[in-house]
Amino acid sequence: MDDLLRGLVPARNAAIPAVHVSRPMLHPNIYRKRIIRTEGNPTAGQWVAVYHQQSDIQERDRDGNRIESRRESDEPSLFAYGIYNPRSEIAVRMYSWWGQWPDESFWDRIVDNAVSLRRDILRLDETTDAYRVVHGESDGLPGLVVDRYGDCLSAELFSLGMYYRCQPILERIAKKLGTKHWLIQECPQFLSQEGQSVPNLTSEGMPPVLTITENGVKYRVHFGTGHKTGFFCDQRDNRRQLAQFSKQRSVLDLCCYTGGFAVQAAKAGSASEVTGVDLDEEPLAIAKKNADINQTRVRFVQSDAFAFMRDMLRIGRQYDVVVLDPPKLIRSRNELEEGSKKHFDLNRLAIQLVKPGGILLTCSCAGLLDEPSFQSIVRSAAKATGFDAEGKPHPPRTLQFLHSTGAAPDHPVVAHCPETGYLKSIWARVL
User: Fold this and answer.
1) Which of 75, 97, 119 is the endpoint of a domain?
2) Cα–Cα distance between 376 and 378 in angstroms, integer?
3) CB 160 within 8 A of CB 93
4) Which of 186, 212, 183 is nearest to 197 (CA)?
5) pLDDT digit string (tens) for 328-351?
6) Nearest CA to 235 among 14, 411, 45, 412?
7) Which of 57, 163, 403, 427 is deepest in the core (most CB within 10 A)?
């Protein structure tokens, strides 16, 4: 029975367990505390039918004005099919609504819609061979992201249920895109969030390293050793924008990882001087190779960002353009206060390193930190006083917010799940 309910398409002859909640919803994630009861003893990774117990009925006149509201409480009504995991706080991830059976044609439509956005609407194949093909909830596939790198598909799992179903989804995508290889790996928090760990899976002949091209700049992608699926496709448009600000200017790329911004500024932006800083040795080694294959000169420094910035402030060093793109600093609500303070401290120092009239690009990839809160942190950081090399206090800096951006559009935000819009990027002129 477990096998019948852990496939991509649940068997028609299988008795599907039931999950009951109080009311229907479009948000694809049902948290454990919202479940009223279960029936049929569902186990981890199984399909379940989701029922709601009651609904609000609103009567309106012919002008659309509400004239009566009442609550019906009849027999439970089926409104979705999802995949269950009792060990996760997100106990059910929903995939189809209003009784639509998740059959083969259903999954074909999901994949067709995802691929069509990237190829037919965004026309990404004209500028790059690296982009996100599946962005979790935004593409109807909660718990799964898939990036395309040349001939390879790299999938990252956020749910146990997707582990059992990922391979046939990748096969459908590969058929559409013409890719030859695939990699499936769990996200870093998979064990703590889903209650167990799963092994990485790869296709036969999957290369450990390949080279991609983005807006004329080449990058090496090393699979299975870094953050996310191997490369940060979400910053593609921001990297292109940075190049426009970089011509004949000095650029500092803090938390540079494999040198995405730094190499783009040097190659496409013709910056006069570029410095990339990261604490981890392994991505810095890749960053240096990225600079080499683009025949550009970038100075890479292995250092903690805080320590590097304080050293530069002590010697009075400033830059025309500063990029601050730290890793995720807030992974749970318990980390919100501490992570917000880290963002404040990083931005306070980074702002002081920008020459008067220069540009700051500061980012946060923490989905739990909303955009107004992030902007407030950056504004507060600009007002904070620092000290120069002689110990004299710096006056507060004035920021001109030029615009705010998010992830590239191959990372769409679905209206009923705003958490899919995780990346926040502020472009500011520092006076």
Assistant:
1) 97
2) 5
3) no
4) 186
5) 999 888 999 999 999 999 999 999
6) 411
7) 163
